[in-house]
DNA sequence: ATTCTTACA
DNA sequence: TGTAAGGA
């Protein structure tokens, strides 16, 4: 068993603040026009950072990208902008909770017998067992495996 | 090249 | 909301 990544190495990659987009990029990513994005911002639905100095223009955070995607989804299924936004904002608190739990649970990425697995941290209160999760490509589902914590450091790099 | 605001359709 | 104008 070997650590491919430890928690601290995953942080930068999962830190959504590291991903920012200009309006043209957000438009091609979401299918929402620049006109709409500016209008939504004027209504307080989304936020952007105004870059000062050389490179003018709006900059959107990853969080905004997600929100725009979700609003677009509801618009496409026939909701008005107002109700689409309401739906999205109701769901956002659950997304936040989900993200908190998943990111705090994720302890690293390991490889066991050639299979890449997520280290989900201690399974029991006294820290004897570690919970690992991996994806079964054949059955298209998540599988779990327990491993003794004292084996976790083996073959470390 | 891209984005900005304003304004009219 | 789209589009065009006219600047940055």
TrEMBL record:
<feature type="domain" description="HTH merR-type">
    <location>
        <begin position="20"/>
        <end position="90"/>
    </location>
</feature>
<keyword id="KW-0804">Transcription</keyword>
<dbReference type="InterPro" id="IPR047057">
    <property type="entry name" value="MerR_fam"/>
</dbReference>
<keyword id="KW-0238">DNA-binding</keyword>
<keyword id="KW-0678">Repressor</keyword>
<dbReference type="GO" id="GO:0003677">
    <property type="term" value="F:DNA binding"/>
</dbReference>
<dbReference type="InterPro" id="IPR000551">
    <property type="entry name" value="MerR-type_HTH_dom"/>
</dbReference>
<keyword id="KW-0805">Transcription regulation</keyword>
<protein>
    <submittedName>
        <fullName>MerR family transcriptional regulator</fullName>
    </submittedName>
</protein>
<dbReference type="InterPro" id="IPR009061">
    <property type="entry name" value="DNA-bd_dom_put_sf"/>
</dbReference>
<dbReference type="Pfam" id="PF13411">
    <property type="entry name" value="MerR_1"/>
</dbReference>
<dbReference type="GO" id="GO:0003700">
    <property type="term" value="F:DNA-binding transcription factor activity"/>
</dbReference>
């Amino acid at each position: 068993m070997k650590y491919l990544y430890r928690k601290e190495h995953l942080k930068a990659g999962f830190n959504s603040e590291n991903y920012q987009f200009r309006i043209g990029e957000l438009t091609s990513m979401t299918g929402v026009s620049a006109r709409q994005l500016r209008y939504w911002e004027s209504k307080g639905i989304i936020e952007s950072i105004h870059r000062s100095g050389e490179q003018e223009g709006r900059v959107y955070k990853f969080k905004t990208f997600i929100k725009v995607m979700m609003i677009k989804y509801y618009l496409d299924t026939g909701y008005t902008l107002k109700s689409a936004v309401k739906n999205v904002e109701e769901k956002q608190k659950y997304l936040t909770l989900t993200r908190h739990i998943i990111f705090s649970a994720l302890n690293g990425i390991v490889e066991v017998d050639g299979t890449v697995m997520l280290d989900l941290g201690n399974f029991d209160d006294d820290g004897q067992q570690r919970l690992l999760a991996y994806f079964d490509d054949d059955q298209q589902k998540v599988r779990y495996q327990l491993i003794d914590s004292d084996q976790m450091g083996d073959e470390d790099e």
